[in-house]
Specification:
Order of helices and strands: HEEEEHEHEHHEEEEEE
Number of domains: 1
Helix content: 10-25%
Number of helices: 5
Mean pLDDT: 89
Strand content: 15-25%
Shape: globular
Length: 204
């Protein structure tokens, strides 16, 4: 490789890295004193961890184990998810999730840039996981409409504040999978509002 070509390659790499360069911080939830990591991705500031605030209803620990909350946060139904973020933060709309995906590049690699690396929490192979965004997505699984728990270690699901239609009992979600580098969001990514999914809050 010539020197000129090498310099061009390095410059392009720097541009790609800087486009999602991590600006980290922290936030203390005044309601329970828990401190969360935060990360700025593009113009958005996200909590870098799943929400772990115990709501009065519509809120569950995976398999009712408190140890799971410490790692993955609580699972919330849609109604609770829309109102559970602390003051100054909110549940992201589908448009805000789309903006995050656009910041990360092609959909086929977006999930890898969101997912925590390694297999301490994700099952092997945790395809393409780099956590380049600093989002540190974890596979917290879900609570189904029949009150069973599934997919911990395999998938992460995060609520959107956007419902499928005005009369529909479903809301949009973001999906990440241990076997895929592509993150899903759209008409195929829906959950019934009574199911329990993870919550990531975005700053107002």
């Amino acid at each position: 490789m010539t020197y000129k070509l090498l310099m061009i390659t390095l410059a392009m790499s720097c541009i790609a890295i800087n486009s999602i360069a991590q600006v980290t911080g922290s936030f203390k939830d005044p309601r329970d004193g828990k401190t969360y990591k935060t990360v700025k991705i593009g113009t958005q500031t996200w909590m870098g961890e799943n929400l772990a605030f115990k709501a009065e209803e519509g809120c569950w620990a995976y398999k009712n184990l408190a140890a799971n909350v410490q790692v993955y946060g609580y699972l919330y139904n849609w109604k609770t998810a829309k109102n559970v973020c602390p003051s100054g933060w909110h549940l992201p709309s589908i448009e805000e999730w789309e903006a995050l995906k656009a910041q990360l590049g092609e959909p086929s690699v977006a999930a890898g840039k969101l997912k925590e690396t390694g297999t301490a929490h994700w099952k092997k192979p945790n395809t393409e996981a780099s956590n380049a965004s600093g989002f540190t997505a974890l596979p917290g699984g879900n609570r189904t409409v029949d009150e069973t728990y599934e997919s911990m270690g395999l998938k992460g699901f995060w609520w959107s504040s956007t419902q499928f239609s005005k009369t529909n009992g479903q809301g949009y979600r973001l999906d990440n999978d241990y076997e895929d580098g592509e993150t899903e969001l759209g008409d195929t990514s829906l959950n019934f509002k009574t199911e329990g999914l993870s919550v990531r809050c975005i700053k107002d």
